[in-house]
Amino acid sequence: MPRWVPGSYLIREPLRHVRDITVSGGAKIVRNGTHGYRIKPPKGGMKDILVNYKLLCPDLTVRSNHMDASHLHLVPTFTWMMPKRGWDGGDDCTVTLMMPEGWSAASQLNDHPASPPKHKVWTVGNERTWQPPDVDELYDGVIEANAEATHSRMMSGAMHHLRVWDAGGYVVPEQAIERIQDAMEILVNEFVALFGPLPFTEYWTILHLTGGPRGGLEHLRSQTSMVPRIAIQSGQDDAWRDLVSLLSHEYLHLWNVKRLRPREFIDYDLSKEVHSELLWWFEGGTSWLGDIICVKSGVWSEKDWRKDLERKMKRFNNGRGNEHQSLATSSHEAWIHLYRPHTYSRESTISYYLEGEMVMMCLDAELRRRSKGQTGLENLFALLWKRHGLDSPELETLGVRHSDIRKGLTSLHGGARMGTMLDRLTKENVRPDLNKAMSSLGLEFISPEDDDKKPQGWLGMNLSTKKGGLYVQGFLPDSPLRDSLLPDDELISLDGLRVRNKSELNSVLLGRQDTDASLTINRQGVMMETSFKIACEPELANKLEGKGNRLWQSMLQSNQSS
Fold this sequence. Notes:
- The protein is an alpha+beta fold and 562 residues long.
- It folds into 3 domains: 14-133, no CATH class; 152-445 and 549-561, Neutral Protease, domain 2 (Orthogonal Bundle); 457-536, PDZ domain (Pdz3 Domain), CATH 2.30.42.10.
- 28% of the residues lie in helices and 23% in strands.
- The chain is built from 14 helices and 25 strands.
- It has helices at 135-138, 174-195, 237-252, 279-297, 302-317, 327-332, 345-348, 354-371, 378-388, 402-411, 419-427, 434-440, 502-509, 550-556; strands at residues 18-23, 28-32, 36-40, 51-55, 66-68, 71-74, 95-99, 104-107, 126-130, 143-146, 150-155, 158-166, 202-210, 215-218, 222-228, 444-446, 457-458, 461-466, 469-475, 490-494, 497-498, 516-523, 526-533, 535-536, 543-545.
- Strand 11 (150-155) and strand 12 (158-166) form a beta hairpin.
- The protein starts with 17 loop residues before the first strand and ends in a 6-residue tail after the last helix.
- 36% of the residues are buried.
- The model has no long low-confidence stretch (mean pLDDT 93).
Protein backbone atom coordinates (compact mmCIF):
# COMPACT_ATOMS: atom_id res chain seq x y z
CA MET A 1 0.00 0.00 0.00
CA PRO A 2 1.31 3.52 -0.69
CA ARG A 3 2.36 5.49 2.39
CA TRP A 4 1.89 9.09 1.24
CA VAL A 5 -0.04 11.18 -1.28
CA PRO A 6 1.80 13.14 -4.00
CA GLY A 7 1.50 16.84 -3.19
CA SER A 8 1.15 16.25 0.56
CA TYR A 9 4.45 15.48 2.21
CA LEU A 10 3.63 13.38 5.27
CA ILE A 11 3.68 9.62 5.83
CA ARG A 12 -0.07 9.04 6.25
CA GLU A 13 -0.12 5.21 6.20
CA PRO A 14 -3.33 4.59 4.18
CA LEU A 15 -3.05 0.93 5.20
CA ARG A 16 -4.61 1.86 8.55
CA HIS A 17 -7.93 2.25 6.70
CA VAL A 18 -7.81 -1.28 5.24
CA ARG A 19 -9.62 -4.16 6.95
CA ASP A 20 -10.91 -7.71 6.30
CA ILE A 21 -8.41 -8.54 3.55
CA THR A 22 -8.74 -11.96 1.91
CA VAL A 23 -7.48 -13.78 -1.19
CA SER A 24 -9.16 -16.39 -3.38
CA GLY A 25 -8.41 -19.94 -4.49
CA GLY A 26 -6.94 -21.35 -1.33
CA ALA A 27 -4.11 -18.85 -1.19
CA LYS A 28 -3.04 -17.27 2.07
CA ILE A 29 -2.19 -13.65 2.76
CA VAL A 30 0.08 -12.46 5.57
CA ARG A 31 1.49 -9.10 6.60
CA ASN A 32 4.85 -8.19 5.12
CA GLY A 33 6.85 -5.23 6.36
CA THR A 34 5.39 -1.90 7.44
CA HIS A 35 2.87 -1.38 4.64
CA GLY A 36 2.45 -4.58 2.65
CA TYR A 37 1.18 -8.13 2.40
CA ARG A 38 2.62 -11.32 0.94
CA ILE A 39 0.38 -13.77 -0.92
CA LYS A 40 1.24 -17.46 -0.63
CA PRO A 41 -0.39 -19.52 -3.43
CA PRO A 42 -1.59 -23.07 -2.78
CA LYS A 43 0.46 -26.05 -3.93
CA GLY A 44 0.24 -26.29 -7.70
CA GLY A 45 -0.04 -22.53 -8.09
CA MET A 46 -2.95 -20.51 -9.44
CA LYS A 47 -3.65 -18.49 -12.55
CA ASP A 48 -5.85 -15.76 -11.08
CA ILE A 49 -5.78 -14.12 -7.68
CA LEU A 50 -8.62 -12.02 -6.31
CA VAL A 51 -7.63 -9.79 -3.40
CA ASN A 52 -10.68 -8.50 -1.55
CA TYR A 53 -10.68 -5.90 1.22
CA LYS A 54 -12.83 -3.23 2.78
CA LEU A 55 -11.84 0.42 3.08
CA LEU A 56 -12.81 2.83 5.82
CA CYS A 57 -13.65 6.21 4.26
CA PRO A 58 -14.33 8.54 7.22
CA ASP A 59 -12.06 11.54 6.62
CA LEU A 60 -13.44 14.60 4.87
CA THR A 61 -10.20 15.86 3.31
CA VAL A 62 -8.87 16.31 -0.21
CA ARG A 63 -6.13 13.74 0.48
CA SER A 64 -8.17 10.71 1.54
CA ASN A 65 -11.23 8.62 0.75
CA HIS A 66 -14.56 9.93 1.95
CA MET A 67 -17.91 8.27 1.41
CA ASP A 68 -21.42 8.86 2.68
CA ALA A 69 -24.91 8.37 1.26
CA SER A 70 -24.46 11.33 -1.08
CA HIS A 71 -21.00 10.85 -2.63
CA LEU A 72 -17.69 9.03 -2.91
CA HIS A 73 -14.35 10.84 -3.12
CA LEU A 74 -11.85 8.14 -4.07
CA VAL A 75 -8.13 8.86 -3.70
CA PRO A 76 -6.01 6.16 -5.42
CA THR A 77 -3.21 6.17 -2.84
CA PHE A 78 -5.80 5.37 -0.16
CA THR A 79 -7.41 2.68 -2.36
CA TRP A 80 -5.15 0.66 -4.65
CA MET A 81 -2.45 -1.73 -3.59
CA MET A 82 0.35 -2.28 -6.09
CA PRO A 83 2.63 -5.24 -6.84
CA LYS A 84 6.02 -4.55 -5.33
CA ARG A 85 7.70 -5.62 -8.55
CA GLY A 86 6.87 -6.96 -12.01
CA TRP A 87 4.22 -4.40 -12.98
CA ASP A 88 4.41 -0.70 -13.81
CA GLY A 89 0.99 -0.08 -15.31
CA GLY A 90 -0.15 -0.19 -18.90
CA ASP A 91 -2.71 -1.99 -21.05
CA ASP A 92 -3.53 -4.65 -18.48
CA CYS A 93 -4.84 -2.19 -15.88
CA THR A 94 -8.47 -1.09 -15.71
CA VAL A 95 -10.56 0.49 -12.94
CA THR A 96 -14.29 -0.30 -12.75
CA LEU A 97 -16.66 1.49 -10.39
CA MET A 98 -20.23 0.44 -9.68
CA MET A 99 -22.41 3.31 -8.45
CA PRO A 100 -25.99 3.76 -7.26
CA GLU A 101 -28.51 4.59 -9.96
CA GLY A 102 -28.58 8.30 -10.71
CA TRP A 103 -24.93 8.81 -9.87
CA SER A 104 -22.13 9.66 -12.30
CA ALA A 105 -18.37 9.92 -11.87
CA ALA A 106 -15.91 12.75 -12.48
CA SER A 107 -12.28 11.82 -13.11
CA GLN A 108 -9.30 12.78 -15.26
CA LEU A 109 -8.94 9.07 -16.15
CA ASN A 110 -9.77 8.06 -19.71
CA ASP A 111 -12.90 5.96 -20.28
CA HIS A 112 -12.29 2.40 -21.42
CA PRO A 113 -14.85 0.11 -23.13
CA ALA A 114 -13.76 -2.94 -21.15
CA SER A 115 -15.84 -5.93 -20.19
CA PRO A 116 -16.82 -6.15 -16.51
CA PRO A 117 -14.14 -7.80 -14.37
CA LYS A 118 -14.36 -11.58 -13.95
CA HIS A 119 -14.85 -11.27 -10.22
CA LYS A 120 -17.88 -8.99 -10.60
CA VAL A 121 -20.30 -9.64 -7.75
CA TRP A 122 -23.12 -7.35 -8.90
CA THR A 123 -25.71 -8.35 -11.51
CA VAL A 124 -27.06 -4.95 -12.46
CA GLY A 125 -25.80 -1.48 -11.77
CA ASN A 126 -24.45 1.80 -12.94
CA GLU A 127 -20.90 1.00 -14.06
CA ARG A 128 -18.00 3.03 -15.37
CA THR A 129 -14.57 1.76 -16.43
CA TRP A 130 -11.30 3.60 -16.98
CA GLN A 131 -7.85 2.59 -18.22
CA PRO A 132 -4.89 4.38 -16.64
CA PRO A 133 -1.99 4.16 -19.14
CA ASP A 134 0.69 4.05 -16.43
CA VAL A 135 1.27 4.06 -12.68
CA ASP A 136 1.58 7.85 -12.57
CA GLU A 137 -1.91 8.18 -14.04
CA LEU A 138 -3.38 5.43 -11.86
CA TYR A 139 -2.23 7.02 -8.61
CA ASP A 140 -3.24 10.52 -9.74
CA GLY A 141 -6.68 9.52 -10.98
CA VAL A 142 -8.98 10.81 -8.22
CA ILE A 143 -12.66 9.90 -8.73
CA GLU A 144 -15.63 11.89 -7.46
CA ALA A 145 -18.95 10.05 -7.74
CA ASN A 146 -22.32 11.56 -6.80
CA ALA A 147 -25.71 12.55 -8.21
CA GLU A 148 -24.70 16.14 -8.94
CA ALA A 149 -24.54 17.61 -12.44
CA THR A 150 -21.31 18.28 -14.31
CA HIS A 151 -20.89 21.84 -15.56
CA SER A 152 -18.63 22.06 -18.61
CA ARG A 153 -17.23 25.02 -20.50
CA MET A 154 -14.58 25.35 -23.22
CA MET A 155 -11.69 27.52 -21.98
CA SER A 156 -8.65 28.36 -24.11
CA GLY A 157 -9.14 25.32 -26.33
CA ALA A 158 -9.72 22.74 -23.56
CA MET A 159 -12.96 21.53 -22.00
CA HIS A 160 -13.08 22.39 -18.30
CA HIS A 161 -15.51 20.39 -16.17
CA LEU A 162 -16.76 21.48 -12.74
CA ARG A 163 -18.35 19.06 -10.25
CA VAL A 164 -19.56 20.66 -7.00
CA TRP A 165 -20.63 18.61 -3.97
CA ASP A 166 -21.87 20.05 -0.68
CA ALA A 167 -21.10 18.07 2.48
CA GLY A 168 -24.38 19.10 4.09
CA GLY A 169 -26.63 18.69 1.08
CA TYR A 170 -26.99 22.44 0.50
CA VAL A 171 -28.35 23.14 -2.98
CA VAL A 172 -25.77 25.26 -4.79
CA PRO A 173 -27.41 28.10 -6.76
CA GLU A 174 -26.84 28.15 -10.50
CA GLN A 175 -25.49 31.69 -10.35
CA ALA A 176 -22.78 30.48 -7.94
CA ILE A 177 -21.74 27.82 -10.48
CA GLU A 178 -21.55 30.43 -13.23
CA ARG A 179 -19.55 32.78 -11.03
CA ILE A 180 -16.99 30.04 -10.35
CA GLN A 181 -16.77 29.16 -14.04
CA ASP A 182 -16.38 32.81 -15.01
CA ALA A 183 -13.51 33.20 -12.54
CA MET A 184 -11.86 30.01 -13.78
CA GLU A 185 -12.06 31.14 -17.40
CA ILE A 186 -10.41 34.46 -16.56
CA LEU A 187 -7.64 32.63 -14.73
CA VAL A 188 -7.12 30.04 -17.48
CA ASN A 189 -6.70 32.78 -20.09
CA GLU A 190 -3.98 34.40 -17.99
CA PHE A 191 -2.15 31.10 -17.44
CA VAL A 192 -2.20 30.40 -21.18
CA ALA A 193 -0.78 33.87 -21.86
CA LEU A 194 2.16 33.00 -19.61
CA PHE A 195 2.83 29.33 -20.33
CA GLY A 196 1.41 28.84 -23.82
CA PRO A 197 -1.23 26.37 -25.09
CA LEU A 198 -2.70 23.99 -22.52
CA PRO A 199 -1.00 20.56 -22.46
CA PHE A 200 -4.34 18.68 -22.30
CA THR A 201 -7.81 18.65 -23.86
CA GLU A 202 -9.87 18.18 -20.68
CA TYR A 203 -9.57 19.36 -17.08
CA TRP A 204 -11.67 18.53 -14.01
CA THR A 205 -12.28 20.71 -10.97
CA ILE A 206 -13.84 18.82 -8.06
CA LEU A 207 -15.09 21.32 -5.49
CA HIS A 208 -16.29 20.31 -2.03
CA LEU A 209 -18.26 22.80 0.06
CA THR A 210 -18.17 22.30 3.83
CA GLY A 211 -19.09 23.87 7.13
CA GLY A 212 -15.44 24.64 7.88
CA PRO A 213 -12.75 22.26 6.52
CA ARG A 214 -10.52 23.61 3.76
CA GLY A 215 -7.80 22.23 1.50
CA GLY A 216 -6.63 21.59 -2.02
CA LEU A 217 -4.71 18.92 -3.91
CA GLU A 218 -3.43 19.01 -7.46
CA HIS A 219 -3.41 16.22 -10.06
CA LEU A 220 -2.18 15.84 -13.64
CA ARG A 221 -5.36 17.18 -15.23
CA SER A 222 -7.61 17.83 -12.25
CA GLN A 223 -7.84 19.21 -8.75
CA THR A 224 -9.89 18.61 -5.64
CA SER A 225 -10.50 21.81 -3.71
CA MET A 226 -12.45 22.22 -0.48
CA VAL A 227 -13.70 25.45 1.10
CA PRO A 228 -16.39 26.54 3.58
CA ARG A 229 -19.65 27.04 1.70
CA ILE A 230 -19.85 30.70 2.72
CA ALA A 231 -17.35 31.27 -0.11
CA ILE A 232 -20.17 31.05 -2.66
CA GLN A 233 -22.59 33.23 -0.68
CA SER A 234 -23.17 36.82 -1.69
CA GLY A 235 -21.22 39.44 0.25
CA GLN A 236 -18.62 37.02 1.65
CA ASP A 237 -15.72 38.81 -0.02
CA ASP A 238 -12.90 37.33 2.08
CA ALA A 239 -14.15 33.76 1.62
CA TRP A 240 -14.66 34.27 -2.13
CA ARG A 241 -11.17 35.71 -2.45
CA ASP A 242 -9.81 32.62 -0.74
CA LEU A 243 -11.73 30.28 -3.06
CA VAL A 244 -10.39 32.03 -6.16
CA SER A 245 -6.85 31.91 -4.75
CA LEU A 246 -7.17 28.17 -4.06
CA LEU A 247 -8.48 27.42 -7.56
CA SER A 248 -5.61 29.42 -9.06
CA HIS A 249 -3.01 27.73 -6.83
CA GLU A 250 -4.10 24.19 -7.71
CA TYR A 251 -4.41 25.04 -11.41
CA LEU A 252 -0.88 26.45 -11.47
CA HIS A 253 0.33 23.11 -10.09
CA LEU A 254 -0.48 21.72 -13.56
CA TRP A 255 2.87 23.18 -14.56
CA ASN A 256 4.69 23.74 -11.28
CA VAL A 257 4.76 20.27 -9.56
CA LYS A 258 2.84 17.95 -11.90
CA ARG A 259 4.89 18.67 -15.05
CA LEU A 260 7.81 20.71 -13.81
CA ARG A 261 9.02 18.59 -10.90
CA PRO A 262 11.95 18.41 -8.53
CA ARG A 263 14.40 15.92 -9.96
CA GLU A 264 13.61 13.61 -7.00
CA PHE A 265 9.91 13.47 -7.99
CA ILE A 266 10.25 12.40 -11.62
CA ASP A 267 9.13 8.92 -10.56
CA TYR A 268 7.30 8.98 -7.24
CA ASP A 269 8.33 6.39 -4.67
CA LEU A 270 5.22 6.19 -2.50
CA SER A 271 6.76 3.69 -0.09
CA LYS A 272 9.03 6.12 1.76
CA GLU A 273 9.82 9.77 2.39
CA VAL A 274 11.23 11.42 -0.74
CA HIS A 275 13.09 14.58 0.23
CA SER A 276 13.50 17.73 -1.81
CA GLU A 277 14.98 21.08 -0.80
CA LEU A 278 12.82 22.87 -3.38
CA LEU A 279 9.34 22.83 -1.85
CA TRP A 280 9.79 26.57 -1.26
CA TRP A 281 9.70 26.90 -5.06
CA PHE A 282 6.99 24.38 -5.77
CA GLU A 283 4.61 25.42 -2.97
CA GLY A 284 5.73 28.88 -1.86
CA GLY A 285 6.32 29.87 -5.48
CA THR A 286 2.94 28.48 -6.51
CA SER A 287 1.25 30.48 -3.72
CA TRP A 288 3.00 33.65 -4.86
CA LEU A 289 2.42 33.30 -8.60
CA GLY A 290 -1.10 31.90 -8.15
CA ASP A 291 -2.15 35.10 -6.39
CA ILE A 292 -0.21 37.30 -8.83
CA ILE A 293 -2.16 35.62 -11.64
CA CYS A 294 -5.37 36.45 -9.76
CA VAL A 295 -4.58 40.17 -9.81
CA LYS A 296 -2.99 40.19 -13.29
CA SER A 297 -6.05 38.52 -14.79
CA GLY A 298 -8.49 40.86 -13.07
CA VAL A 299 -10.33 38.18 -11.11
CA TRP A 300 -8.86 39.95 -8.06
CA SER A 301 -8.61 43.70 -7.72
CA GLU A 302 -5.42 45.35 -6.48
CA LYS A 303 -7.29 45.95 -3.22
CA ASP A 304 -7.95 42.19 -2.95
CA TRP A 305 -4.25 41.44 -3.34
CA ARG A 306 -3.24 44.00 -0.74
CA LYS A 307 -5.82 42.73 1.75
CA ASP A 308 -4.64 39.15 1.33
CA LEU A 309 -1.02 40.24 1.74
CA GLU A 310 -1.92 42.00 5.00
CA ARG A 311 -3.33 38.72 6.32
CA LYS A 312 -0.11 36.89 5.42
CA MET A 313 2.10 39.61 6.88
CA LYS A 314 0.44 39.14 10.29
CA ARG A 315 1.57 35.51 10.26
CA PHE A 316 4.99 36.40 8.90
CA ASN A 317 5.65 39.09 11.51
CA ASN A 318 4.57 36.80 14.34
CA GLY A 319 7.17 34.15 13.49
CA ARG A 320 10.86 33.89 14.38
CA GLY A 321 11.71 30.56 12.80
CA ASN A 322 14.13 32.19 10.31
CA GLU A 323 16.70 32.27 13.11
CA HIS A 324 16.78 28.47 13.18
CA GLN A 325 15.76 27.17 9.76
CA SER A 326 16.39 28.00 6.10
CA LEU A 327 13.90 27.53 3.30
CA ALA A 328 15.90 24.63 1.91
CA THR A 329 15.92 22.95 5.33
CA SER A 330 12.21 23.65 5.84
CA SER A 331 11.54 21.93 2.50
CA HIS A 332 13.70 18.93 3.34
CA GLU A 333 12.10 18.55 6.77
CA ALA A 334 8.50 18.93 5.56
CA TRP A 335 7.84 15.31 6.51
CA ILE A 336 8.38 15.93 10.21
CA HIS A 337 7.45 19.59 10.66
CA LEU A 338 4.87 21.32 8.44
CA TYR A 339 1.96 18.94 8.99
CA ARG A 340 2.97 18.25 12.59
CA PRO A 341 3.18 21.66 14.27
CA HIS A 342 3.83 21.97 17.98
CA THR A 343 3.57 24.75 20.53
CA TYR A 344 6.94 26.25 19.63
CA SER A 345 6.82 25.77 15.85
CA ARG A 346 6.65 29.49 15.11
CA GLU A 347 9.79 30.04 17.15
CA SER A 348 11.86 27.22 15.67
CA THR A 349 10.60 26.48 12.15
CA ILE A 350 9.25 28.27 9.07
CA SER A 351 6.66 27.35 6.48
CA TYR A 352 8.02 26.86 2.98
CA TYR A 353 4.60 28.07 1.79
CA LEU A 354 4.56 31.42 3.59
CA GLU A 355 8.29 32.15 3.74
CA GLY A 356 8.72 30.92 0.18
CA GLU A 357 6.09 33.37 -0.95
CA MET A 358 7.84 36.23 0.86
CA VAL A 359 11.17 35.32 -0.76
CA MET A 360 9.46 35.28 -4.16
CA MET A 361 8.24 38.84 -3.60
CA CYS A 362 11.76 39.96 -2.74
CA LEU A 363 13.24 38.27 -5.82
CA ASP A 364 10.50 39.63 -8.07
CA ALA A 365 10.92 43.21 -6.82
CA GLU A 366 14.70 43.06 -7.29
CA LEU A 367 14.39 41.53 -10.77
CA ARG A 368 11.97 44.25 -11.83
CA ARG A 369 14.27 46.94 -10.40
CA ARG A 370 17.30 45.62 -12.27
CA SER A 371 15.44 45.07 -15.53
CA LYS A 372 13.59 48.40 -15.26
CA GLY A 373 10.28 46.58 -15.26
CA GLN A 374 10.91 44.53 -18.40
CA THR A 375 11.17 41.18 -16.57
CA GLY A 376 9.30 39.64 -13.65
CA LEU A 377 9.69 36.40 -11.75
CA GLU A 378 6.73 34.85 -13.59
CA ASN A 379 9.04 34.70 -16.63
CA LEU A 380 11.29 32.33 -14.67
CA PHE A 381 8.38 29.96 -14.04
CA ALA A 382 7.62 29.83 -17.78
CA LEU A 383 11.32 29.43 -18.68
CA LEU A 384 11.86 26.52 -16.28
CA TRP A 385 8.70 24.79 -17.51
CA LYS A 386 9.93 24.99 -21.09
CA ARG A 387 13.40 23.71 -20.20
CA HIS A 388 12.52 20.97 -17.70
CA GLY A 389 8.78 20.12 -17.87
CA LEU A 390 7.55 16.53 -18.41
CA ASP A 391 5.88 17.22 -21.78
CA SER A 392 7.58 20.50 -22.68
CA PRO A 393 8.09 21.11 -26.42
CA GLU A 394 11.56 22.55 -25.68
CA LEU A 395 12.80 20.01 -23.11
CA GLU A 396 16.49 20.22 -22.14
CA THR A 397 16.71 18.18 -18.91
CA LEU A 398 13.83 16.51 -17.11
CA GLY A 399 13.19 17.86 -13.61
CA VAL A 400 14.91 20.71 -11.77
CA ARG A 401 17.49 21.24 -9.06
CA HIS A 402 18.50 24.43 -7.28
CA SER A 403 21.24 24.96 -9.84
CA ASP A 404 18.65 24.93 -12.66
CA ILE A 405 16.55 27.59 -10.92
CA ARG A 406 19.70 29.66 -10.37
CA LYS A 407 20.78 29.27 -13.99
CA GLY A 408 17.34 30.26 -15.22
CA LEU A 409 17.21 33.34 -12.99
CA THR A 410 20.64 34.60 -14.00
CA SER A 411 19.78 34.11 -17.70
CA LEU A 412 16.85 36.52 -17.50
CA HIS A 413 17.19 40.18 -18.39
CA GLY A 414 18.14 41.89 -15.12
CA GLY A 415 18.90 38.64 -13.30
CA ALA A 416 22.57 38.19 -14.27
CA ARG A 417 23.93 38.91 -10.77
CA MET A 418 21.02 37.62 -8.67
CA GLY A 419 22.35 34.11 -8.07
CA THR A 420 23.97 35.07 -4.76
CA MET A 421 20.73 36.67 -3.56
CA LEU A 422 18.79 33.51 -4.44
CA ASP A 423 21.30 31.30 -2.60
CA ARG A 424 21.27 33.47 0.50
CA LEU A 425 17.47 33.75 0.76
CA THR A 426 16.90 30.02 0.33
CA LYS A 427 19.93 28.33 1.91
CA GLU A 428 20.75 30.57 4.88
CA ASN A 429 18.84 31.31 8.10
CA VAL A 430 17.83 34.83 7.08
CA ARG A 431 14.65 36.87 7.19
CA PRO A 432 13.60 38.24 3.77
CA ASP A 433 13.61 42.05 3.75
CA LEU A 434 10.06 42.83 2.63
CA ASN A 435 10.44 46.53 3.48
CA LYS A 436 13.31 46.91 1.02
CA ALA A 437 11.41 44.96 -1.65
CA MET A 438 8.29 47.09 -1.36
CA SER A 439 10.33 50.28 -1.27
CA SER A 440 11.68 49.50 -4.75
CA LEU A 441 8.06 49.23 -5.93
CA GLY A 442 7.15 52.61 -4.44
CA LEU A 443 5.32 51.07 -1.48
CA GLU A 444 5.87 50.66 2.25
CA PHE A 445 4.54 48.63 5.16
CA ILE A 446 2.92 50.60 7.97
CA SER A 447 1.07 49.72 11.16
CA PRO A 448 -2.70 49.90 10.55
CA GLU A 449 -4.33 52.83 12.31
CA ASP A 450 -7.42 52.09 14.35
CA ASP A 451 -8.85 55.22 15.98
CA ASP A 452 -11.61 53.18 17.61
CA LYS A 453 -9.26 50.70 19.25
CA LYS A 454 -9.17 51.06 23.03
CA PRO A 455 -5.87 50.69 24.95
CA GLN A 456 -5.53 47.00 25.71
CA GLY A 457 -3.09 44.98 27.76
CA TRP A 458 -1.40 42.09 25.95
CA LEU A 459 -0.27 38.64 27.11
CA GLY A 460 1.11 37.42 23.77
CA MET A 461 -0.41 33.96 23.81
CA ASN A 462 -2.59 31.75 21.64
CA LEU A 463 -5.50 30.66 23.81
CA SER A 464 -8.34 28.18 23.37
CA THR A 465 -11.61 27.81 25.23
CA LYS A 466 -12.41 24.22 26.18
CA LYS A 467 -13.94 22.33 29.07
CA GLY A 468 -15.35 25.59 30.35
CA GLY A 469 -11.91 27.16 30.79
CA LEU A 470 -9.24 29.18 28.98
CA TYR A 471 -6.10 27.22 28.08
CA VAL A 472 -2.66 28.12 26.74
CA GLN A 473 -1.94 26.77 23.24
CA GLY A 474 1.23 28.63 22.37
CA PHE A 475 3.18 31.86 22.59
CA LEU A 476 3.79 34.83 20.29
CA PRO A 477 7.18 36.56 20.08
CA ASP A 478 7.90 38.84 23.09
CA SER A 479 5.13 37.37 25.23
CA PRO A 480 5.67 38.47 28.88
CA LEU A 481 4.57 34.99 30.00
CA ARG A 482 6.78 32.99 27.62
CA ASP A 483 9.06 31.78 30.43
CA SER A 484 6.37 31.41 33.10
CA LEU A 485 3.57 29.35 31.57
CA LEU A 486 3.41 26.03 29.75
CA PRO A 487 1.11 24.69 27.03
CA ASP A 488 -2.18 23.42 28.46
CA ASP A 489 -2.01 25.64 31.55
CA GLU A 490 -5.49 26.88 32.42
CA LEU A 491 -5.92 30.58 33.19
CA ILE A 492 -8.06 30.97 36.33
CA SER A 493 -7.94 34.65 37.31
CA LEU A 494 -6.03 37.87 36.74
CA ASP A 495 -5.59 39.96 39.89
CA GLY A 496 -8.38 37.94 41.48
CA LEU A 497 -10.87 38.43 38.63
CA ARG A 498 -12.12 35.19 37.03
CA VAL A 499 -11.34 34.67 33.34
CA ARG A 500 -13.17 31.77 31.68
CA ASN A 501 -13.02 32.91 28.06
CA LYS A 502 -11.29 35.44 25.81
CA SER A 503 -14.03 38.01 26.26
CA GLU A 504 -13.63 38.02 30.03
CA LEU A 505 -9.85 38.19 29.69
CA ASN A 506 -10.02 41.15 27.30
CA SER A 507 -12.30 42.98 29.71
CA VAL A 508 -9.81 42.55 32.54
CA LEU A 509 -6.89 43.62 30.31
CA LEU A 510 -8.60 46.82 29.14
CA GLY A 511 -6.33 49.76 29.94
CA ARG A 512 -3.84 47.54 31.83
CA GLN A 513 -0.79 47.77 29.54
CA ASP A 514 2.56 48.34 31.31
CA THR A 515 1.13 47.48 34.76
CA ASP A 516 2.09 44.74 37.24
CA ALA A 517 -0.29 41.82 37.64
CA SER A 518 -0.75 38.46 39.32
CA LEU A 519 -2.04 35.51 37.30
CA THR A 520 -3.57 32.41 38.88
CA ILE A 521 -3.34 29.23 36.81
CA ASN A 522 -4.22 25.56 37.04
CA ARG A 523 -1.33 23.31 36.01
CA GLN A 524 -2.19 19.63 35.97
CA GLY A 525 -4.61 20.03 38.88
CA VAL A 526 -2.37 22.24 41.02
CA MET A 527 -3.19 25.96 41.52
CA MET A 528 -0.28 28.41 41.38
CA GLU A 529 0.37 32.10 40.88
CA THR A 530 2.87 34.03 38.79
CA SER A 531 3.66 37.74 38.85
CA PHE A 532 4.52 39.64 35.67
CA LYS A 533 4.12 42.97 33.88
CA ILE A 534 1.29 43.19 31.36
CA ALA A 535 2.71 44.23 28.00
CA CYS A 536 1.49 46.52 25.25
CA GLU A 537 0.70 44.74 22.00
CA PRO A 538 3.48 45.32 19.43
CA GLU A 539 2.51 47.44 16.45
CA LEU A 540 3.31 45.27 13.45
CA ALA A 541 3.80 46.85 10.04
CA ASN A 542 1.34 44.67 8.09
CA LYS A 543 -0.49 47.15 5.87
CA LEU A 544 0.82 48.07 2.42
CA GLU A 545 0.69 51.82 1.82
CA GLY A 546 1.31 53.90 -1.30
CA LYS A 547 0.21 54.02 -4.93
CA GLY A 548 3.31 52.30 -6.27
CA ASN A 549 5.58 53.20 -9.18
CA ARG A 550 5.89 51.89 -12.72
CA LEU A 551 7.64 48.73 -11.48
CA TRP A 552 4.60 48.02 -9.32
CA GLN A 553 2.35 48.58 -12.32
CA SER A 554 4.45 46.15 -14.37
CA MET A 555 3.77 43.48 -11.73
CA LEU A 556 0.01 44.08 -11.98
CA GLN A 557 -0.07 44.16 -15.78
CA SER A 558 -1.70 41.20 -17.53
CA ASN A 559 0.47 39.00 -19.73
CA GLN A 560 -2.42 38.98 -22.19
CA SER A 561 -1.74 42.65 -23.00
CA SER A 562 1.62 41.67 -24.50
